[in-house]
User: What shape does this take?
Amino acid sequence: MSAVSVRDISVAFETVRVFNGLSLDFEAGEFIVLLGPSGCGKSTLLNAIAGLMDISEGQIWIGGQNVTWEEPKDRGIAMVFQSYALYPRMSVRENMSFGLKMAKTPKPEIEKRVKQAAELLQITHLLDRRPDQLSGGQRQRVAIGRALVRDAAVFLFDEPLSNLDAQLRNELRVEIKRLHARLGKTTMIYVTHDQIEAMTLADRIVVMKDQLIQQVGSPSEIYHRPANMFVAGFVGSPQMNFIKGRIEDTGSGPIFVSGQRRLPLHGYTFTSTPTSNQDVVLGVRPEHLRIVELGAWPEFSVDVVEPMGADTVIWCRDREGSLQVRTSGDIRLSPGEQLNLGIDAAQVSLFAADSGERL
Amino acid sequence: MTTVIPQGSRPRRLTAGRIGIYAFLITAALFFTLPLWIMIVTSLKPMDEIRLGNILAWPANLTFDAWVKAWSSACTGLECNGISVGFWNSVRILIPSVILSIAAGAINGYALSLWRVRGANLLFGILLLGAFIPYQVFLYPLVRIFSTTGIYNSLLCIIIVHVIFGLPTMTLLFRNYYTGLPIELFKAARIDGGGFWTIFFRVMLPMSTPMIVVAAILQVTGIWNDFIFGLTFAGRENLPMTVQLNNIVHSTQGERAYNVDMAATMLAALVPLVVYFVSGRWFVRGIAAGAVKG
Assistant: This one.
């Protein structure tokens, strides 16, 4: 039985209807990240699961119950928001106990749960402060604490780290991951547009675009075997290199050809059989291009060098166009230098040029 | 010759433009304070001195007699109990009207902005339309309605009128304020199990202090200064201070008592004046700040 199950739902706005029968299952204890650019519908989906937005068709099941018509408070969920959404006129303690008070939980029980959550998140010393006396990171901790005391089986996160600066974001990201491990069987559904958060946190990632699910898979699958060009381009930084070309069959197996560049594809696992002379796009991640003495693809000249500390991104070009190569941080290259690139067919992705789907 | 090396704060020079600005500001300030000054000094003079005609001069024989008379024994038509009767009438009209209209506006604004009631925009549009129609149009129909229901010419009647006519502005004010709040706050409260009233009283209302203050200023001054509703709906027993003031100024036998008229006017203007002085501090406070983004 799934912890959360979204069955054939549609959401009607004033003029448009989105999702058109979207279905998705979330396993108990799973950490699922809904990833996509803004406007892709990930937050709408989360709000529909929370019951904050009515669906026009389909069903939502949580914990084996059909909660399609239930109020948000009766769905056994807790939610953390991007803007923290702390009640500004209440202390941290009151913020955290508000929901329990509404549910008429006995006082000692409220105190116990607030204390536990505060200790877990190390905010015990902040309990009597007001939200405006807290820093951004502390506020988000309190918001997580408020969700925690609800003892819910399902946690919903709506871009919880997007308002924080880079360092705090990293810290809290680790903390959320640790929290998920400590809570054990809690299902977490996490919406973000940040691919790093998605890659680091998720057991499974759901990539969305234009209210449609593009791919569901483990971070590794999403990264190494993207289902289409959108997923390939959206996940990974620097972005995957896309090279337009076509497939030629030479008798000894298919070969990718793009002008001077040629790549025999005998290490590549096709999901569907390619036709000869089919127009395709070859996707190769910057770190899968190697600088070699004698390479498959010669005569590249260095355009721009971007040292990032741990690694270096090199923009280089040949007559066909420009490629990004990620290599070790200690490499010394200057613009204008010549280099050869090595490439392994097992590490590339091939997409049909017309549909953008993986081949 | 020594040249000054530019460093530190730039020296301020009095330019022609600056003199012009000051001249304009001083003139504008005088324009608005002079009538007030004349009112105050006249109200503090005995009639003999007023007859001399130095309207700007400080009183030679300072006296508060005119104020006392205006408050307690000036004639408003046939009765001679001063403007104090009108003052207390106005207070009795003001307090329930202000509280009820703000409460109704806040609840309306809250329901329209956050609960997305079906047809909320249409409702709101109709309500706003009400604000734009000159209210003289409503006077006669309302008089008919109230006399049919039997509450015409009573305190209740005038309070209902003030609440109704305050509703569009109050609703607009609170709707816009609540729309400006992060919607996530409302969502969080719903997940925490708050219902319509709990969220309103426990979450939204405590955040509304700045708007309540603004609304109170608008309503207190508006209702206190009202003349036509008071005259039309309040009935003889409950005529507000503005109507009484008009009666005092117009019911003169023999010599016109300028000092009493001025004192009565000052007394009638006192409440809005106090409201502005007291509320200034609250006006600028942003209560929601800090609760949302860091």
Chain B has a mean pLDDT of 86. The radius of gyration of chain B is 26 Å. Residues 4 and 11 of chain B are 11 Å apart (CA to CA). Chain B has two domains: 17-63, 84-283.
